Structures are given as C-alpha cells and as structure tokens.
Amino acid sequence: MDAISLVNAFNRMLVSNVLIVRKHHRLNAISSGMVRNAVILTGVAIVTLFITGQQMGTIQFRSHLGDVSSISITLMYTVIMIVQFPTLAVAISKRTKLHELCKRIIRMDEEFQKHFFRPIPPNSIWWIKLQLVIASLITLYLLCRCILLNHMYPGKTALTVAARILLQFNMAMRLIFGQLFGEILLSRFQHFQRVVTLRNLGFFVQCLDEIDELKTLLTSIFGFQILINVFSSTPYQPDDLMDAISLVNAFNRMLVSNVLIVRKHHRLNAISSGMVRNAVILTGVAIVTLFITGQQMGTIQFRSHLGDVSSISITLMYTVIMIVQFPTLAVAISKRNKLHELCKRIIRMDEEFQKHFFRPIPPNSFWWIKLQLVIASLITLYLLCHCILLSHMYPGKTALTVAGRILLQFNMAMRLIFGQLFGEILLSRFQHFQRVVTLRNLGFFVQCLDEIDELKTLLTSIFGFQILINGANMFMTCSVVSYNVLITVQIKENLLQVLWEKLDVLADLFGNMVIFFLFGYRCGLIEVKEQEFKNAVKSLQYTATEEHSEDYLNFLDLINLKLMAESPKITACGLFTVNLQVFYNVFAAIVTYIMILFQFRDFEKA
C-alpha cells in the first residue's frame, strides 16, 4: 500500500499518468491525468518562456548582463524551461509503457501470492520519502523567498521566477518517480533472496526473466529523464555491461545507430533496428533545410548580407554542414552490417572471458562518453533556445533553417561520440586484461589480442569516414567562428559585449573543440594501454624458470615475436592515425586558415 500511495501521489503532482485503484479486491492500474499534466506544464513553460523572451529584449534586462555570473544564471534558467517540452513529449510517447510497467509489477506480485499463499512484505521505501521531503522543503523555501522579496522584482519577473522553481521541482519529481520503480524491483530482489529454495527455483527463474524485461521497460520510459537530469548511475541495473548497453541503445534512439542490444534467455544479443527511420528523418531534415536555404540565397535581401568575407564564410560553413549529411548517411547505410557484426563480436568476446574465468568483466562507467554527451546536449539546447528567443529577428523560414542546421550538427557530433564509445570498450578490455594476465592463461589472452586487432580494423572501417568528416567540420567551424569573433572584436572595443553577442557561436566553437580533443585523446590512449598490455605479456617470459619445457619456452618466444608485430591503428579512412597529434595538427591548420581569411579581408578593404 505504501508504494501504491506514492504512485498515486506522483499522479496528483502532475508527474504520472497512472493511478493504482482497488476493484473487486484486486489492484489495477488505470490511465489518468495525461492531458491535464501536458496542458498545465506546457502552459506554464510557454508563458514563462514568452515573458522571459520579452524581458530579454528590454534595456533594463541587458544592463544586468554585465558579468559572466549573470549570463550563466540566465542561460541555466532558460534551459530549465526549454527542456520541459522534450520531456513532456517523451512522457506522452511512453504513457502506454508506463501503464504496462505498473500492470506487470502488480501481476508479478499476484503470481507470488498464488505460489506462496502470502503477499510480498511491505517496504517503507523511505529513501523515496526522504528525497520527496528534501525537494519539497527546498521548493517551499524558494517560493517563500520569492514572495518575501517580490518588492524587488516587477510582477512579471516574480512570476517567471516562481514558475521556474515549480518546473524545476517537477523535473526532480520525475526523476524520483523513476527511482520509485527501481526501489520496487530492488525490494523484490531482496525478498526473493530470502525465500528462494531448490523446490521453488523454477518460479524464481521466471521471476528473474520478468524483472529483466521490467528493467528494460524502465530504461525505455525514464532513460531520457535520467539524461536530462544528468544522472549517470543506475543502481537497479546489475549487469556489468548494462552501462555500455544503455549507451548503445540511447544512440539508437538519437537516430545515430541501427543496432539495439537486447537480453533474451539470459544472453545479450545485437539486433538491427531503426536504419530506415534514421535515414528518412535525417535526409528529410537535410533536404528541407537545404531547399529553404537555396531559396533564400536567391533573394536580393540575402545577397545584400554577403558583402564581406565573414558572412560568405559562415554561409558556406552552414551549407557544407547540411550537404555532408548525404554522404554520411550513405556510408552509415552501407556499413550497417559491419556495425551489427562489431557489437556481436564484442558480446561474444566478453562471453568467452566469462566462460574462461567464471566471472564477468568488471563494469565501466564510461564517464568520458557521458561528459561529451552532456556537453553536446547542453550546447545544442542553448543554441535552440537562442534560436527560439531571437525568432522575432528572423523570418519563419530562416529560423527553421537555423534550427535544422543545429540538429544536423548535433547528430554529426553524436556519430563521432558513438564511434568513441566502442574505442572506450576496447580500452577497458586492455586495462582489465593487463591486471589478470598470467602464464597459465597466456594463450587465451593472445587470442583476445588477435580478436581486438580485428575489432579495431572493423571500427576503422565503420567510423573512418565519420572521423574524417568531423575533423574537417571542426577545422571549418572553428576557423570561421574564430575569424568572425576576431573581426567583431576589432570593430567593437567592449570585449564583454562581444562575448555576449557571440555567445552562440562561441558555444558552438567550444563544443566542437572539446569533443574532438577528447576523441583524439581517448583514441590515442588505446594505443598506450595496448602497448602496456603487450609489455605485461612480454615480461611473463622472464618468470619462466628451468622447470618449464623447451617447447613451452619456444611457445613464449613465438608469442613475443607476435607481440612485436605492429597492430592495426584506428584511422580516418587510412589517411591518418587518430590520436592527440591530430587535434594539434588541425588546431595549427585553423590558425593558418584564419590568417588566410584575414589576408582576404585586407584585399577586400583595398
């Protein structure tokens, strides 16, 4: 009953669309409040965003943006309001899955009661209650503070502050609501552990299959909310590979990958999913955006803006970003079977390790990948917010092309990070193999090394073109944006004002450079860890004593010769090896290109 009252409480707090009711002495989950939640929360977010947009256009508001602190706080609050729209859209799309999740948990508990003639003992779920109390007290304090200090704000400003506090509270409640189901599954595991015996083993194996499906359903429903709240740890996922699996599946939902990792009969399996969806949506966005841009290029008003090198270079940069989507998608379609094979072979290698050592490979948090995802997502959200807030300055079609270009560029960054994810998986394998390799299992690890070499070749074949395109995109974007900012600094003396006006392009510049830098750094680290693993294997020959046979010593010599051979590298279509040196070379090329653009500007002045 405690869990039921909490689920119903979340429904009344505009978080859930499910109510648990008792009918004919049986619990039942019914849909309730979806329209109410969507209308109220969307209305609050739209009104708040509209008032904020009006205030941003006033001279009084701009006078407060005199330092980095004020600017960052304004951006933070704007993002909080903007993310309500995708969050609500995902909640609406997942409403039937949430209903199914509740019904299946109720059904599992009923089956337990039929089998053991007693219900599952109640759980106080006090962790959830503690979080609810903390969030409620903080929200009440912030609202009281807003009311007490309302004489310091105009009426509209106080309204936006109060609405922002309530929207932020709703976001926290959605996260806690997802955790509630995790706590329910956790309590089931704890109780099953106490009562499992050989006589009822078959029943609990069925329960384990059901809980695995419930966890997959839980990830599908609340995965986006977890990403929005920048919450990286998932305590209700006990699988060592689950973190990598959730990331691969998240990239599939972000229109990047055509592979889903699913669990069937207690085994992981890679299946093809979403190739047609990805191709149709991304091609459609690119074609529409490019078509509208082409129409605008033919207008006299557009040509009047192309009076200097800065405007021409920015126009060419955005056009190229849209055009390269077509070859990128074509390569992704042609490599779809190889990506599927890559996932299956990594799963198979991990299964072989578990069979050999009777334990799985330890989990990896992949926090480098999550850091890049957070950076790219926040910058994209900011750019979209900036586009919406300044939509009154552009015609409708222009704002549409800007938004389309931002989303396409985000998709390009996601493809690069997706390739890096597989590099991180191989890197974690090298690190673990180095810790456990011994003379007794040397043959197994040499086989693993051969397999990883083939996986690296496969990885280069799949993502080589994407690496090349992203390297060229970073070079072009950073060159043009840096040149544009430097020209503006020359014209205006107030550096802080220039930084505020060019914050959108600077965010774009920062995101491109950080993502490509981390990509090069982590790929270069794979070579370092591989060499360390090889050195660890080579050092084992010195532990061989006279007790070993001559044949065994010859075997060690053959392994040593094999390790001395050069391994395949992760390259961009074979043109260059991906490591940190690539970033430095591209950075040097950016400086050179900026100097060339300045020479064109001198020629333009003359």
UniProtKB/TrEMBL annotation:
The gene is 23687578. The keyword Transmembrane applies. InterPro entries: 7TM_chemorcpt. It comes from Aedes aegypti (Yellowfever mosquito). The chain crosses the membrane at residues 33-51, 71-93, 132-153, 165-186, 274-292, 312-334, 373-394, 406-427, 462-485, 505-524, 582-600. GO terms for biological process: chemosensory behavior; male courtship behavior; sensory perception of taste; signal transduction. It comes from the Eukaryota. Belongs to the insect chemoreceptor superfamily. Gustatory receptor (GR) family. The keyword Membrane applies. This is Gustatory receptor. It is found in: Cell membrane. It is a multi-pass membrane protein. Gustatory receptor which mediates acceptance or avoidance behavior, depending on its substrates. Pfam families: 7tm_7. GO terms for cellular component: axon; dendrite; neuronal cell body; plasma membrane. Keywords: Cell membrane, Membrane, Receptor, Transducer, Transmembrane, Transmembrane helix.
